[in-house]
Amino acid sequence: MTLAGMGVRTNLQARMLTPCITQYNSAALHPIGSRLYTYINLKWTFFIFLVLFEGGSLICGLASSSFMLIVGRAVAGMGSSGLMGGGLNIIAGAVPMHKRPLYIGILMGFSQLGTVCGPLLGGAFTQFVSWRWCFYINLPAGGLCIFLMALVMVPVQVPNLSGHGFASRGHVYLTRRFDIVGFMLIGGGSVMLLLALEFGGKTQPWDSSVTIGLLCGAAGAFVVFCLWMHRLGDEALIPRSLISQQVVYTAAEWAGYQFIAGAGRGLYLQIPILAVQSYLRPCDLSIGMSTIVFAQTLGAAIVLVIGSSVFLNSLRHEIPVAAPDGDLPKILKAGATGFRQLFEKNHSLPGIIFSYTLSLQRVFYVVTAIACLAFLSCWGMGWKNIGKNQAATEVEVESGAALNEREKRRKSQAQVAGHAVETGVRLSLSAT
Fold it and tell me: Which parts pass through the membrane (predicted)?
C-alpha cells in the first residue's frame, strides 16, 4: 500500500492522507483479529483478511474519485490488519520452535523489502504507466498466495465451541469471547489519538476545541478500556495475564536497535515474536502475537503523524527566517519534489533547501529520542534457549515422563490383577 501513497504526485498532506487511513484501520482492527485467529479456523480467517485487502486494492485501482480511493484504502486497511498476525500464527503452528527464527526473519525481510521497493515502484508506475497499477500489482501477488494456501494444511488447534453451548447461544458466546466493548473502546481511542495528532498544528491549532476534544476522548477511551480489561481479566480483548508477563512488554520495546537504522530494524522486529512464542502458552500465542503487531502498527502510525507534524511546523517556522522572500503557502503546496521548480531562479532557493534539511533533522531527533527510551526499557530480560538441542531435551523429558506414567499404570494394573487372583484362590479354598 506504500506504492500509491508515495507515487501520486501531489502535496505533502495528500500524500499522507490515504496511507494514514490504512494505518488507522489496521491499528484499530489488530486486537479483534487476534480473537478471530484464536477461535476461528486460522487458514480461512487468513483468507478473509487477504480477500479484503485484495478487494480494497481493486477499489483503489478502479477509483474515479477521491472518496472512492479513500474507501478503498479503508477496506484495504481492514484486510491488512490481519495479514501479518496471520502469517506469524501460521509459522507458529507449522514450524518447530528452533526453526522459527529463520522463517520469521524471511517474513520480516520480505515485509521490509516491500517497504523499501514500494516507493520506487510506485513512482515508476505513476511516471511511465498509471498510478492505478500501484494497486493492481497487489492482485496477482494475492491471487498466487490464495492458490498456494489452498494446497496446504495449517496444523493449528481451534477450540471446540460445541462444549460451550455455542449452538444455542452462539451470539452471546462470541460477544463475550471477542470482547466487542473492548474493541470499540481501544479502536475508537486509537483513531481519536491519531486524528488529534494529524490535525494538531496543521488544519487545527493545538488549543482548538477539535484537537483538545479528540485528545481528551482518546485518553478517556484508553482509561475506560484499562478498567474494562481489569474487570474482565483473561476474557478481555487483551488479557490481563498477558500484560502481567514482563517479557512481552520488554521484548516489544527492542526498538533501541534503531540506532543502526536498517540493520537494527531487521534485528528487533522478530525478537518480540520469538519471545512471545517461547514464553506464552499455545492457547495465548495468537493473542500475544497480534498484540505485538497491533503495538507496532499503532506506533508506526503515531510516529508517522508526529514526524509529519514536526516537519511541517518546523518548515513554517524556518522558511520565513531563512528565506523571507519565499511564499510559504506555495512552498508547502508544492511539496518536497516541486518547490525547486517554483524557485529555480530565485535567490531564496538555498534558504528553502536549508529549511527542509533542518526540518528533516528534527524528525530524526524525535526518532532517536524514542529509540533511546526503548533501549532503556529492554534491560532485565531473561534468557531462554530455543535451539534444537533444547527442543530435543524437552521432547526427551516429555517422553521419559510418559514412559514413567505408563510403567506406573502397568504396575498398578498388575497389582490389581494379583489381588483379584489371590481373592479368587481364597474363595475357592473356603468353598472346598
Answer: 44-63, 75-95, 101-121, 133-158, 178-197, 209-230, 292-312, 363-382
